[in-house]
Structure formats: C-alpha cells, structure tokens
C-alpha cells in the first residue's frame, strides 16, 4: 500500500540535515513532529504549531516517550502566525490540511489561514528546502481549500520553485493528495543549480 504521508516523509528526509530547523505547521497527534525531530538531530530544532491544546499535549507525550521533547518548541497558535515565532531559515515545513483524526471534525484548517501560512513558509524556506502539503479534500470546506492551495502552488515562479502533485488514482472516496514545493538553490552567477523547472 502506498501512503501519501510516507511519500511526504521521504521528500523531507532528502531535504533535511542534522542541525536544521523544521516546522510542523499542523501538529495533530505529533507523528510528523516526531519524524522531524528525528531528522534534525540533537543540534536541530522543530517548531510545531496547533490551535488545539489537546493536540499539543498528545504531541508532547509522543515526543517524551521517544526522548525527543527537548528538540521541539510546541506553539499554541495557528500556522498563519509562523513568522511571529521564527526568524531563521528553515529546511522543511510539513502541512496536513484537514482535521485532527479522532478530534473535533468541526475544527478544520481553512484557506483563510492556510494560504498566509504557505506564504510565510516560502519566505522562511532556505534554498534546497521543501514544503509538503498533504491535502485531505473530504473534510468540511476541504475542496475549496485544496483548490486554493493547488492554484497558489501552480502560480509559483518555475525558475525559483519546483512543484509536484501526487494523487492516488485507484482509491475510493476522496483520498489525500500530496503537493511538494522545493526551493531551488541559486549559483553565485545567478543561474539555478538545478536548472530551469519549466
């Protein structure tokens, strides 16, 4: 079975190095936060955002069980407030857009906060860094949020960012989709190390 979340982890693992900074924009139950804490190593730092205190408590508990709590700053704020808490370049940002599984399905991510968070992520992302967005289009307002995110990402400058969309074609219902945004490294001459995207 192919899992969209595992594909997101693979992309982030390629981009992050020990000592990097990373962001879990939607902490939820903490699985991505734990993954990021493992990737950045003892010299790195993870910022995990969630508007639900219960989600941050679950995340803290998971991190403590793995001995990684000290690597993570848990922030009870929406991901659109990212720039208030982070000023340094980051290597990866992970989004899971939807609602907390097992949580209140009325508390969902929304394009009014997701798009500003995505813009903030792009400003903070270092060259070579990636943003992953797992899009759950089946939740309340999910289709509109997914459409807005896809439209925004499709409009990014092709010489500065590479954008890939991954869909599961043979699943029933509304399966999640993955969008990966990579910020290209620039050469001193101003050319792109990875070449033109388009």
- N→C terminal distance: 31 Å
Order of strands, main sheet, comes to 3-2-1-4-5-7-6
Main β-sheet, in a few words?
7 strands, mixed
What is the count of structural domains?
Answer: 1
Q: What would you say the CATH architecture is? A: 3-Layer(aba) Sandwich
Q: Which percent bin holds the helix content?
A: 25-40%
The chain-level mean pLDDT equals: 89
Low-confidence stretches: none
How many individual helices?
A: 6
Compute the CA-based radius of gyration: 16 Å
CATH topology: Rossmann fold
The tally of strands reads 7
The dominant shape is globular
Summarize it.
With 198 residues, this protein is an alpha/beta fold. 33% of the residues lie in helices and 23% in strands.
What features would you describe in this structure?
The chain has one domain (4-183): Vaccinia Virus protein VP39 (Rossmann fold), CATH 3.40.50.150. The protein has helices spanning 4-15, 31-40, 53-65, 82-85, 111-124, 142-154; strands spanning 21-24, 45-49, 72-75, 90-97, 125-135, 161-167, 177-183. The protein contains six helices and seven strands. The protein is of the alpha/beta class. The protein has a seven-stranded mixed sheet with strand order 3-2-1-4-5-7-6, sandwiched between helices. Helices cover 33% and strands 23% of the residues.
